[in-house]
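*** Residues and shapes ***
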Amino acid sequence: MTSADRVPLTKDPSSGDGKARDRVFDAFARGLYAAGVRPNHLTLAQVPIYVLMIVAGLEGRVIEFGLWQIVIMVLDGMDGTLARRMGLASRAGAVLDAVFDFFGIIVVIGIAVHLYPGYLWWFVALLGANLALYLQNGVLDEKAVSYVRGPVVIALVLERSFPGIMWVAILVPLGVALAIVFVRGLVDRVEEVEGELAYRPGFRSGKGGS
């Protein structure tokens, strides 16, 4: 291996924690990299899986739909692992990953509405809350996160056996997303006010007067 072939790891498995898990992930990332696999390859590999997933959902094969979602989650985790471990993370890659993540949310909610149209407006609210969360993460330059796909997919698989479980899958993620958006917005506003006060004459940190 030449010096050009060496790619620095973002973590040294022999230092710090020295966890076996880190060594496994590093070896896994190096193996993928040596095979010519890049993070965007794994992200784009989700496209045919989404096609199969959508077809299964439209035909009401919810267990198969759930299994394809697991494959999507594995690919999504693999591209992030490869990017971080091999120092390949980029802004463009993060945007592409976020786009696929949100597309996945739309697919899951779309199939859920198709199978259970009575929950339509609740799903719209859930989608809106997660869109707000995604936009907030984008503004803060943080990784886009959501709390939709796992709970809703599980509920789709179990709803026929446990009627009403869909409410849990909707209301809990909805509450979490709204709470995060609200708390972050409140914290940002408080920090903004403190910053403005800090520049006022006679203001002292922690005191209102001179």
Remarks:
- Residues 5 and 34 are 9 Å apart (CA to CA).
- The helical segments are 20-34, 39-44, 46-58, 62-85, 91-115, 120-139, 149-158, 165-198.
- The longest helix spans residues 165-198.
